[in-house]
């Protein structure tokens, strides 16, 4: 059979990394990327890009750990290469602090990040309102740079990218053999997934180059994440809010919460505000589906619903989606050789 035609829909971190994994693992396929928005206009551009996993209650922990480990290993290799600055990937050390000792003193990802340990008494003195803390080194993505880098790598493989809004996956059946759905919160409308809901997040990006260590309040709501150019201050988690407009009261609240963790931020300059909708679900939808109309079939692989942790697990879920695409290609080959008999 001719090279199977694969359309990846979506150009956030999930669509770009999934397209790249498909090109790497299924070289016989012809991959096209379709999206109604590209960087810098995706949710992925708004993310802080820290590799600290979010927990998906509907996914076994060993699977989540595997996704995180694959992502960490992939980005760690980039951070150790000459590509690091163009790809916007760097190591960052810091502290996760708690007002009381958490139930789970050792998170499942403790042995994936580097140098995970309880904070010393001397370190905790910096946080008089907190009684317990963990120190570790992890990776951070400068998200727009990383998305550009992924896009550049994809273009170098020869894949085509088109600006197109897909109203119904079925509209792609006459042009493509397999469709990979990486539309993030867009899947709510595209495939009518009622289990998918937005969790609005507002963050500030400030100029405070003296802040070198990350600080994260244990509940994950307040955080200070230094990046290559700017420091991200967060945040909010507003379930089922679709508003993309920044809220000035929330901006003040985020700023005050972050200053109570790191007083020197009072001197931060040039505050920019960003809002994004996390594509949230009990579990990432990572599965095959066969759509069928009037005896005609379209193979679909879904990879969306990464909520608050898309950067932390993107490479792991992209590899699994590419494996599912490989299975679809094998089944197409099987049916075309049966048809010839
Ligand atoms: P998106 O980036 O939204 O991409 C979806 C793509 O699909 C877009 O290109 C869109 O245009 C396209 N699309 C949608 N519908 C259609 C359609 N019908 N037709 C064609 N194209 C379509 N994660 C972390 O791991 N670490 C963090 O520190 C972190 N911080 C965050 C901070 C904030 C404030 C927010 C909001 C999120 C944060 N996240 C973080 C989560 C992370 O941003 C998401 O999990 C991730 O960006 C989801 O990526 P995605 O590619 O699925 O979605």
Automatic annotation (TrEMBL):
Residues holding D-dopa: 223, 278
Reaction(s) this enzyme catalyzes, per UniProt: D-aspartate + O2 + H2O = oxaloacetate + H2O2 + NH4(+); D-glutamate + O2 + H2O = 2-oxoglutarate + H2O2 + NH4(+)
GO cellular component assignments: cytosol; peroxisomal matrix
Keyword Flavoprotein: yes
Residue stretches spanning the membrane: none
Function: Selectively catalyzes the oxidative deamination of acidic amino acids. Suppresses the level of D-aspartate in the brain, an amino acid that can act as an agonist for glutamate receptors. Protects the organism from the toxicity of D-amino acids. May also function in the intestine.
Protein name listed in UniProt: D-aspartate oxidase
